[in-house]
Structures are given as structure tokens and as C-alpha cells.
Write a structure and sequence with these properties.
Elements (H helix, E strand, L loop, with lengths): L4 H11 L3 H6 L6 H15 L8 H10 L4 E7 L8 E5 L4 H9 L16 E2 H5 L7 H7 L4 E10 L5 E9 L7 H40 L3 E5 L5 E4 L1 H9 L3 E4 L2 E4 L2 H17 L9 E6 L8 E7 L14 E6 L10 H8 L3 H11 L4 H8 L3 H15 L4 H9 L7
Antiparallel strand pairs: 1-2, 1-5, 3-4, 4-5, 6-7, 6-12, 8-9, 10-11, 11-12
Length: about 400
């Protein structure tokens, strides 16, 4: 049964019905409204899918009996292939043909906000004589095209395209009304996706920086369960030298240190319930049976925000540092660019930061001690330091560790 304008209005009215009234007078089952509800729900679930909106586009394709539903998150241009999400039968070659050539012939460009139009409505009878139809769409058995554009205040430009095959009927007024109804929901969902993508990029950037600094991180929820750990934390725990993971529980070799750590975690998790304040910070050293230097552990409470409601959010962060971890050596090129050093000077500076003496560094570089001393004086002049300890401190406190 086609969804009419009346049924769409009914769907809007049902969404405003008070829950108590709805329970007291249950409405008869309406497959059309249920279908629309599922479709709108899938649009808002779309940002959490990979690829995004696959369920929504497939449901829309089935609802409109379409050959394809395509969402261009970033339309192709002369500078970029763009990002296109497709449902329906297609090939990589067809997608590439559009991204590299036929996008420039697409008549659906800069459509008015909220408008849903067919190709014939847009350019008239000339549609069937256009190059994009004859050379691209007709060989794919595509006859009917429905288009709408989505533009946000943040500068996002997306395009929704729906197609039907030659043997199919043209898109009806009801089909266009359904798409027009869905557009505001899709726009909000795209804005949510953009926000989530920004936060994920920011998270990945900081996570990468923490990993390069060889700092292990473990996030813990309000129940004391581990939510996530980074690569360095997994490496340390995997060694099972003083601390390890059993199921979802942190285990410490020393009974006393284990009690201290659990007490610290409980204290920080409890403190995380407060929305104000900097949060509790506690620290502990964990002995290692191997005899290697103790691990340094710091536990910090993560206070809840004013609108936090999930119990699965991180309530505490545990940081682990292995003082004997092999540091990732910065490249000589970074040292050269940052401090204006020559290749030999950069090599000497890096060896000194590893703890070598000047004589040991000279031997490793296969140069005489006086030559190394000459390079060191030049480094002092370029960096503005006067002692070797100051140079090491300068390099260790620079951005080199993030490279």
C-alpha cells in the first residue's frame, strides 16, 4: 500500500500522543507507521554503523522499490573522488566512472534546500538526450532519478540520489513526499555523524601521542571494570611481570601492593560521582619479580559531567609507566629541523639523550673525542644551552617524543 500524505501526517500525530493516553487506548497496528518509524530510527542509528546509514538506505530502497539509493557524504570534485555510500547492484568501475568523469555532468547540482525533484522536473524532456543519461545511466539500465541536497551551517554538503530501472514506474508525489519528510532527520543525523567523527579524530590524535610517549592507559568504569586499554598498557600487562590481567580484573603480584591499588581505584571511582572539582589522583609503585625497575602507576578520577548518565563511561583512568621501556628514537631529520643541527650534530645529540657519555658517543659515531667535543660546542651554540645535562633536558622536554 503506498504511503499517502495522510499516512505521513498520521505518523507525525502518533509521535505526539501522550504515553498514558496511548496505553489506555492502544491504537490498532498500522504497518505503514511502523515502517516509517523503523526507517527514521535507522537514520539516527546510521552514524554508529560502518559504513554509516547502510540500514537506512536499504530500507529506503525497499520502500521506494528503487534500484539504488546513494548518499554522497562528500560529492566528487576535480580535486577529490569524494565519499559515496551506495546500496543496490553496482561495480567499482561504475563508481569510479562517476567519481572521475560523469560527476561533472550531473544535473542535480545546488538543489534548493529541502526540495526533492526528478530529472525530468529539473531539465525537462532533454533529460533523455543528456550525456550523463546516454553514456552512463542508460547502460546501467537506470531510467528514473530522484535527487535532494543537504547543506548544513557547518559547510557540509551532501547529496541523496534514488534511482529506478527502465521497467519501473516513475517516482510519484507520495515517493517525493516521503523523501521530503526524511530529509530533516537525515540532516540532523549527518550533523551528529560529523560531530562524532570530529571527536573520534581528536581521540585518535591524543591516543597516538600517548602511545608515542610510551604511557600505558587503562580506563575503568563505575563498577571497577576495565573498558579499554592502549597498546603500551597491553604490552606491560602481557609481560605478567608484577601486574597482569585476569579476565576483567587487574592482578598484582604483591598482596600489599594489590590491596593498595584496589583501594586507590575504589577511591577514584567513588570520587568520579562528583561533577565538580579536579578529581582524586593517587600513585603507586609496583614491584616486578624479574628484578627490573618498579612500574609507576597513577590513578586519576574522571569526574562526571553535569549531564552524564551512562554507567559505562570511564570513571577513572590508570596510567602505567615502564621506566625500562625502549624509547622510540626520534629521527635525525626531526632533530635537525627542530634545532637547526647538522646530521652529525643531530646524531650526537640523540646518543647523549640515550644516556651515553661524550666518549661513548664518539666511539659509537667512530669519530675522535675532540671532534665530538667540537660538535657538542656547536650544538650548545645553536640550542642556547651551556651544559650537557641541560641539552639532554631540552631534547627530552621538546616535541621530539611526539614524532
Amino acid at each position: 500500500m503506498p504511503m499517502t500524505a495522510v499516512s505521513i501526517a498520521d505518523a507525525r500525530n502518533v509521535s505526539r500522543t501522550p504515553a498514558a493516553f496511548a496505553n489506555a487506548n492502544p491504537a490498532p497496528a498500522n504497518p505503514e507507521i511502523d515502517q516509517l518509524d523503523r526507517l527514521i530510527g535507522s537514520i539516527y542509528d546510521g552514524p554508529m554503523e560502518s559504513p554509516p546509514w547502510q540500514t537506512a538506505m536499504q530500507l529506503l530502497r525497499e520502500r521506494l522499490k528503487a534500484g539504488h539509493v546513494t548518499l554522497m557524504l562528500r560529492p566528487p570534485s576535480t580535486d577529490s573522488a569524494g565519499i559515496m555510500l551506495n546500496t543496490g547492484s553496482t561495480t567499482v568501475q561504475n563508481v569510479q566512472a562517476y567519481e572521475t568523469h560523469f560527476f561533472s555532468m550531473d544535473p542535480f547540482i545546488r538543489l534548493p534546500e529541502g526540495e526533492v525533484v526528478t530529472a525530468e522536473e529539473l531539465i525537462g524532456k532533454q533529460w533523455l538526450q543528456s550525456a550523463v543519461y546516454l553514456d552512463f545511466l542508460k547502460p546501467l539500465n537506470i531510467r528514473h532519478v530522484l535527487g535532494a541536497d543537504i547543506n548544513t551551517r557547518d559547510g557540509i554538503e551532501c547529496r541523496l540520489r534514488v534511482t529506478r530501472l527502465h521497467e519501473s514506474t516513475p517516482f510519484s508525489a507520495e515517493d517525493k513526499a516521503l523523501c521530503r519528510l526524511l530529509l530533516p532527520h537525515l540532516k540532523r543525523s549527518i550533523q551528529l555523524h560529523a560531530r562524532l567523527d570530529f571527536l573520534e579524530c581528536e581521540r585518535a590524535m591524543f591516543a597516538g601521542a600517548v602511545n608515542r610517549m610510551q604511557l600505558g592507559t587503562i580506563s575503568i568504569d563505575q563498577n571497577g571494570n576495565i573498558i579499554e586499554s592502549n597498546q603500551e598498557a597491553r604490552r606491560i600487562l602481557g609481560e605478567k611481570d608484577g601486574i597482569w590481567l585476569s579476565g576483567n580484573t587487574l592482578c598484582v603480584e604483591s598482596a600489599q601492593e594489590s590491596r593498595q591499588l584496589q583501594q586507590m581505584i575504589r577511591h577514584c571511582v567513588t570520587d568520579a560521582g562528583a561533577a565538580d572539582g579536579p578529581g582524586v589522583v593517587e600513585a603507586l609503585s609496583v614491584s616486578r619479580p624479574s628484578g627490573r625497575a618498579k612500574l609507576g602507576i597513577l590513578v586519576r578520577a574522571i569526574p562526571m559531567g553535569p549531564f552524564s548518565e551512562s554507567k559505562q563511561r570511564p570513571a577513572a583512568a590508570l596510567f602505567i609507566r615502564d621506566p625500562e621501556a625502549s624509547a622510540v628514537q626520534p629521527s635525525q631529520e626531526l632533530v635537525r629541523r627542530l634545532f637547526g643541527l647538522t646530521r652529525m650534530e643531530a646524531s650526537l645529540a640523540l646518543l647523549l639523550t640515550e644516556g651515553l657519555t661524550l666518549d661513548e658517543a664518539a666511539e659509537k659515531m667512530n669519530v675522535r673525542r675532540n671532534t665530538a667535543r667540537t660538535h657538542l660546542r656547536s650544538i650548545f651554540c645553536k640550542t642556547g644551552v651551556t651544559r650537557q645535562t641541560m641539552l639532554v633536558r631540552l631534547l627530552l622536554n621538546s616535541v621530539l617524543s611526539l614524532g
